[in-house]
Structures are given as C-alpha cells and as structure tokens.
Design goal:
Largest sheet: 5 strands, mixed, barrel
CATH topology of the largest domain: de novo design (two linked rop proteins)
GO cellular component, one term: bacterial nucleoid
Keywords: DNA damage, DNA recombination, DNA repair
Number of helices: 8
CATH architecture of the largest domain: Up-down Bundle
Organism: Acrocarpospora corrugata
Helix content: 25-40%
Protein name: DNA repair protein RecO
Pfam family, one: RecO_N
Length: 255
C-alpha cells in the first residue's frame, strides 16, 4: 500500500455496502480515480459533504488492488452549494461532470487539460456571468478539442475549401457544397460564428448572439458530442427540458 495526494473534482458517487461509497474523482495529476470512502454515509462521518459531486477537493488516498481508499479530504471549492439553488446551472453542471467522466475512460491516465477545463467551466457557471447553456456548449466544444475531436468550423472538413454550405457530423464539421453529404444540416452563418466564438472563448461575441442561433448551436454541439462518444449524455435530457421551457416563445427555425 502507498499513499498519494492530489486535488480533484468529484464526478459521481454510488453506494457500497451499508455505510460506504465509491467516489469517482477527476484529479489534476493522476487522472480519473475511483476510490472507497469508508463510513461516508454515516451521520457522524468525518468526511461529511466533502465528497459530493461538484466539490473541488484536496484528497489523500491509499493505493489499493482494485479500488483506492480515501484517507483524508479537504474542500477547496464547494461548487455544488451555489449550483443546487439554480436549476439551469445545476443541470448544465451535471452534464459537464458526465461529459468529463465519459471523455476520461482510462483510469489513472493523466488528463490535466480536461481537469482544468472542468474547473474553469464550473467556476464560470457559479459566477453567473454567462448564460448556462452557452457555458455548457463552450465546455463541450473545448473538451472535444482536447480529446482530438474539434469540429472544423472555418473551412470544409473534407477538402479545405472556404465556401462552406452545411454542417455534417459524420464529416467532422462544416462542409462545402461539393462535399456535403445527404442529411447535412444547413445552419445560419451566425450559428457557426457562435460556435467559433465559444471554442475560442470570445465571450463578448457569444453573449451578443441571438437566441435562435444559440438554440441551433446547442443542437449541433450536442449531436456532435454524442456522435463522438457513441452514447447519449443522459443528463442532457434535463438541460434540454430546461431550455425548451425557457425558449418556448422562440421560433426554432434556421435562417
């Protein structure tokens, strides 16, 4: 058995036995770690609420044969406390955690850039300076870029031509008329510009985008992400339900 220390964000938890939990943490140096937190479900647990999803922690662990064991934990930033009172931001945060989990399949494989993206995304959600769905779409696009799946947005994904006409998930992004496959979406130019702004972190441009372009952008980004993951993001159902309620008055048409 050996001890190691790291900082990380709790992605998810599930029960183990009568009083324990298995905690999945995306750490800064080690990557994704699954560890047992003994007695954490007891009322008098010394860990308390420190090992709940969204919490940014400093954690000490023992290396185990199959699962490590949490021995010490201190809270660095309790992002969940601010998110649980705001449903749109909370659902966006849950989708971030699930995506980070899905994009770091191999345990204990360093994933520093994904960790930093997650911390930055949660911090931005909490400070409330941008619409939650914009923050989530920016997180999706940047996470895909870190994983090597960034969509082509400035020139044709197949031939490199500048005159793009459509967005094709299977082709890897925008495509020209000659390369456009059947069934490709034809989004507004402003929607593609919004995707570029979110990927680059150009928040003034993103924040000024019209609602119809934000809705269209979210649909394309979600479809592109889930195609590359080969599975749906379950928490997106709750995000989209929130979006549909908020945007019920917005016409969902393409320019």
């Amino acid at each position: 058995m050996s001890l190691y220390r790291d900082e990380g964000v709790v992605l998810r938890t599930h029960k183990l036995g009568e009083a324990d939990r298995i905690i999945t943490i995306l750490t800064k140096r080690t990557g994704k770690v699954r560890a047992v937190a003994k007695g954490v479900r007891k009322t008098k647990s010394r860990f308390g609420s420190r090992l709940e999803p969204f919490t940014h922690v400093d954690v000490q662990l023992h290396t185990g044969r199959s699962l490590d064991m949490v021995t010490q934990v201190e809270t660095l930033r309790p992002y969940g406390e601010a998110l649980v009172s705001d449903y749109p931001r909370y659902t966006a945060g849950i989708a971030m955690l699930e995506t980070a989990d899905r994009l770091t399949q191999t345990e204990k494989e360093p994933a520093l850039r994904q960790f930093l993206l997650l911390v930055g995304g949660l911090r931005t959600l909490v400070d409330g300076s941008h619409e939650p769905r914009l923050v989530l779409d920016a997180f999706f696009l940047r996470s895909l870029a870190v994983a090597g799946y960034a969509p082509a947005l400035a020139e044709c994904a197949r031939c490199g031509a500048d005159a793009v006409r459509a967005f094709a998930i299977v082709a890897g992004g925008v495509v020209c008329g000659a390369c456009r496959p059947a069934g490709a979406a034809v989004p507004a130019a402003e929607t593609i510009a919004l995707m570029i702004a979110l990927l680059r972190g150009d928040w003034p441009a993103a924040d000024s985008a019209e609602q119809r372009n934000r809705v269209e952008c979210s649909g394309l980004v979600a479809a592109y992400l889930q195609w590359h993951l080969e599975h749906g993001i379950r928490s997106l159902r709750h995000v989209e339900r929130t979006d549909s309620t908020q945007n019920a008055h917005v016409p969902h048409t393409w320019s």
